[in-house]
Design a protein that fits this description.
Metal Binding Protein, Guanine Nucleotide Exchange Factor, Chain A, alpha+beta, nine-stranded mixed beta sheet, 22 strands, lyase, zinc, CENP-V/GFA, CENP-V/GFA domain-containing protein, Mss4-like_sf
Length: 407
């Protein structure tokens, strides 16, 4: 079923979704004005544009909070847009490059999702009704307004929803449509993970992508970490048994993850189990690729199904080569020595029993999401709402909105 708030009737919401989101936004018959919007993955291997009927804009964007989108993306929600009937990606070269993309079939879903095989950027997929669903972060300019939230009960601790101001989950500006809450009778629920412990009985937090190819555990900060002159700076300043966490709104993270914002947890590389190779195993992976150019066997990867991509000079990112989930980021800015490297762990992969925010494991830098000013130039409405909502949440939870260093 579909549920709605703010005045839109359930029957109206159901009608809008029954044939496919934005099905009613098809181009008008006869001559009409269009606008072209360019899009690409982070590395540029997958490039396309879409031509949209101006009369249909803005399109309805969506945020899907389900566990599949979290675990296959590494984020707290997939943020996307469904293109109207008749609007298709105009791929550079004429068609989506099959030799540069990887498909992932989610059990129970009729059509696969695609991501760039080189950089891991989520490309999206074509629904059974023929409409394309694509991450908004691929596009160079905005042509949507978030008007649909899917599977909200999958995040009982509020997830990303709790950090958006009420105005962002109700009616927008004058004349804007009300929000549609899509909550099916089956599948919209949170399945709590079982607590994990090591052989010595100490607690562990599982991180695992949707296909299970990238899976590891994180311990609590140890005394050795707290005594280290560098690593202790990545322990929560308010709780010695927690790590630091923050929201990242940079465009690189957005294009790569399929969302506008990525939640990161900071953890020393050497404490993760099993041990993560230096530089995420990039050098070893390149050797395998050179020696076996025509083979795609999983065992060639040095850390499960993790693939690596150099997104900038100091940063190496790790994503699952099977399901495409953003998993890890290593940066030279946080590696004074190999033994002191601190990694970003994508928090959409976490299986914290208490909820997606992993509140028992981290303290959030609620007062200062990263790259917020950069993000305002891309999607100001969403960014302002998230930054202020996150700050208010921090004040309510901690008594203040924490601001601490993450580099």
């Amino acid at each position: 079923m579909s549920q709605s708030v703010g005045g839109m009737s359930e029957s109206t919401a159901a009608a809008l979704l029954s044939k496919g989101l934005n099905h009613d936004k098809a181009a008008p018959s006869g001559p009409h004005e269009t606008t072209k919007v360019a899009a690409q993955c982070h590395c540029g291997a997958v490039t396309f544009s879409v031509s949209l009927p101006v009369a249909s804009l803005p399109l309805r964007g969506y945020m899907c909070h389900c566990s599949i989108c979290r675990h296959a993306g590494g984020t707290y929600a997939r943020i996307g847009v469904v293109l109207p009937p008749g609007v298709r990606p105009d791929w550079a070269g004429g068609s989506m490059p099959s030799d540069k993309t990887t498909s992932y079939e989610v059990p129970g879903r009729p059509t696969p999702q695609f991501f760039c095989s080189t950089c891991g950027s989520t490309i999206g997929g074509q629904g059974a009704n023929g409409q394309w669903s694509m991450p908004v972060s691929l596009f160079d300019s905005k042509f949507w307004e978030i008007r649909v939230h899917g599977f909200p009960k999958s995040v009982p601790d509020g997830g990303l929803l709790e950090w958006l101001l009420p105005d962002a989950t109700a009616a927008g500006a004058a004349g804007a449509e009300e929000i549609i809450w899509f909550s099916p009778d089956h599948g919209d629920s949170f399945v709590a993970a079982e607590p994990e412990r090591a052989a010595d009985g100490s607690e562990r937090l599982r991180a695992e992508c949707h296909c299970g190819g990238v899976s590891f555990t994180i311990p609590r900060p140890s005394q050795a970490v707290r005594d280290d002159a560098y690593l202790r700076d990545y322990v929560s300043p308010s709780d010695p048994m927690k790590w630091k966490a923050f929201l990242d709104l940079c465009r690189d993270c957005g294009r790569l993850s399929g969302a506008t914002v990525v939640p990161w947890m900071l953890v020393p590389r050497v404490v993760i189990e099993p041990p993560v190779p230096a530089d995420l195993g990039r050098e070893e992976q390149q050797q395998h690729q050179h020696q076996h150019q025509h083979q795609q066997q999983q065992q060639q990867q040095p850390y499960g199904t993790l693939k690596t991509y150099k997104s900038s000079a100091p940063n190496t990112r790790g994503f699952c080569g099977v399901c495409g989930a953003t998993a890890l980021l290593a940066t030279e800015h946080r590696e004074p020595t190999a033994a002191q490297a601190v990694l970003n762990v994508a928090m959409g992969l976490l299986r914290a029993p208490e909820g997606v925010k992993a509140a028992d494991w981290v303290t959030w830098r609620a007062g200062k999401p990263a790259w917020a000013e950069d993000a305002k130039g891309y999607d100001e409405e969403f960014t302002v709402s998230l930054v202020e909502g996150h700050r208010r949440w921090g004040v309510e939870k901690y008594g203040e909105a924490p601001e601490f260093d993450v580099i």
